[in-house]
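Self-study notes.
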Amino acid sequence: MLLLTAFFSFLITTSQAADVFLTGSKTFEITDYSVVKKGVSIGNCIQSDPFTVGGYQWAIEFYPQGFNPSYSDFVSVLVRLLNPKNVVKAIQTHHFRDWNSTGWSTSTPVDSNLRTFSANGYTGWGYFDFMARSNFEVSNYLRNDTLVIKTNIWVVKDSSSFLMPPLSAAAGNLYSWWDQVFQTSDVSVENSKSG
């Protein structure tokens, strides 16, 4: 065990740079879905108010008739980087509010891939086929003609801006160290049992 700890301490102290994620989320409520759907054509969206994550302005985009004609049988959900001046790397997830529970959808796609947002490339990423419209309209995600989308964003900051402490600093009292990390973080951990 001592050899293993020394090995990991060596790895971390000789390569101390690590990616730093700045996180944030936004909920976007859309009322009068049936009216919105009729008034918004394929390829057009309803956009949330801007919100800031990682020092950048973002917006959620909901396409009730699909992102383009190829996806006209789906509802599409994207997150867009507004006024892109720099290349921004981020991970994003989207969930519908499940009105029959206290939580958010788990059956919607989750993309854990790091995406690049830039003025010279894509300013928006998401899911053109987020959910088949026919399934969405009879699901627990639409109630009283209202839906709520929650988008989570993790923006990667320059890894050279953050240095990890050597493992040996935490090895003496891991419980105390993790407690301190969670007290100062924007992360929540949930323990769930299946079965």
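Second protein, same conventions, sequence then structure:
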Amino acid sequence: MEAILAAMRAAQGVEGISEGNASDDETRDDATTTPAGEAGRHRAMQTVCAEFAASAGAWLGGRWYQHFESWLYSRRGGDADADAFPRGEDAERDAVLARKLRASGASDGEATRICRRLAKASENARRAAASAEASTRFNAKANRVRRREFEVGGDKGVRKVELSCGKVKLEVNARHYAGLRRRFEGRADDEAFHRAAFCLLARYACLQGTHYKAGNMQAAVPTGVLDVLRGKFGVRCEMFASPLNAYLEEYCSAVPATDRQFGSLGSAFDYEPEEGSFECNPPFDEEFISRLAGHLERLLAKNSKKPLSFCVIVPKWLESRGWKRMAKSVYCTSNTSLEAKEHAFISGAQHSRVDQMTASAAATSVIFLQNRAGERKWPVTADAIDMIRAAFSPIKSHTPRDVEKWDPDAPLGLGTNTRRLPAGSKSWVYASKRQSPADETVETPAKKKKKSKKVANGAISADFFRD
């Protein structure tokens, strides 16, 4: 038994666990992921990304990766935890993607076939990731994480840290790396921290689809907005954050399995406060927002005596169920519109980019949901709304922490200093399958004067991902 526990400690990064003291160790429940397992998950998600680009990208254009991220969120149906892969076929949740494909010229039959191919690719990738995790869980060598520092951008560049496990390399800005180190509960052990940090980076990359330009589904609010909410409304907790972008000390996040070691309170949908003031900036997905609306109304109805207040920041989607439910709620005490280009957000992938602020291309709603006790304690005044507007303003009024130069083609994202997926990414998943869900050949773009090549058995060459 002791030998097995030792192997688990080495693979998972959990120190000091033995048969006698396991019940007293604070980190035992958090060590549910391993670097090798998350690396396998990352590689598997890349194959789904490649399948989406090959089948839907031709219809959706150069920003297909945004549609891919949106599809992932929609198919998960408000549940970002678990394994990040959508499961099975779901015509209802594929409706948005199918509509986009038809609007781009695809026939009904073609749109349906594409959705089915994506569902099959996702399921195969999920199984391959699970198999890879099981086969490496107790392999200490496979779970070793390496670290290196480097700088991009010359004299005015940004310092970055690369964490790698096997062939998967992930980058994080040095500032965010330092923030993770500060939040990490097992501060004494650098090796354990690097294992936990790699798992975190890999999982969030998977949730966004692994493409280095992804991250727009959950842009963060400027820190100045959180300062206003903390000062005027007593906000102490962000209900939709992550260890990578949380500004306040208390926060909920999407993936407790990787986040609890960095202080996360767990999923917002499992969080049941009886009183207090909270900020909610959910992913820009209708299912998430609708689910959040129901959760907040239930909390407010359940706790009528103690002051409870939620500041909800969501896209102004007038026809969506979630937006209408909050805007028309009996608990809605204020509904403010921020017009397009007059406010800005921070990239959802800020931890790996050198940007941060980006002007919003669409209108946003700032909705306050409060019970009567909360309304009395934290009244929404015109002055407070003006301060929120000012804190949301693009670029000029913000500090260097919020606004940095960004080269969208800087190194990052898929784990290498490149703009493409690794060669043979699909073949990694389908190598053991008798039949591939995408047996057709895929033609890669021409590189310089060389002729383009076709790769069989579903594999896509590295040149596939040039923009």
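Instructor comment on the second fold: The longest strand covers residues 158-165.
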